[in-house]
Specification:
By secondary structure, the protein is an alpha/beta fold. The chain has 5 helices and 7 strands; from the N terminus they run E-E-H-E-H-E-H-E-E-H-H-E.
């Protein structure tokens, strides 16, 4: 595998890195840039300026195109999404997990992404819908993947005697 660009919006999202050359791209408003750059994640590290989910994704995707990346994993995408992004045909992988799950795509999809005009709504939190609408209109493959979520509150039932 060649270059994988992994987009994150917080240093805490960095998990296990796939094989090959990895480029971590932090997309945020500057809040976590110093912490991110001062931490050795054993990967190339870049920062792009972003305000909102859509602008973060586009910042990462545009950087991936510049670098000639084979695939993009954004927002905590893992092995399942990565497995879908292997191959020559354009593919978009969307995580089904509110509020907006991980997004992954391959280099062929990035070429399509560059052709579509980007309305203001796509730069905000509606990027998932915008990506899916455009991909489906063009007849491109879209995979929906469900990620297991860790409960924020332990689900225990109180038993009384």
């Amino acid at each position: 595998m060649g270059i994988t660009v992994i987009g994150i919006t917080h240093p805490g999202q960095v998990g296990a890195l796939p094989g090959g050359t990895n480029v971590l791209v932090l997309a945020d408003d500057g809040t976590y840039a110093d912490e991110f750059l001062d931490t050795d994640f054993r990967a190339h590290q870049l920062v792009v300026r972003a305000h909102g989910r859509g602008s973060a994704f586009f910042g990462v995707a545009d950087k991936a195109r510049e670098l000639g990346a084979d695939r993009v994993l954004f927002g905590g995408a893992h092995d399942t999404a990565a497995s879908f992004t292997a191959g020559e045909d354009p593919v978009l992988v969307l995580g089904v997990r509110p509020p907006g799950g991980p997004i992954a795509c391959n280099a062929a999809f990035l070429e399509w992404l560059d052709r579509w005009p980007r309305p203001a709504r796509a730069y905000r939190d509606d990027v998932d819908h915008w990506l899916a609408e455009n991909a489906l209109r063009e007849g491109l493959r879209v995979e929906l993947v469900s990620w297991r979520m860790e409960p924020t509150v332990p689900m225990r039932r109180k038993l009384s005697a």
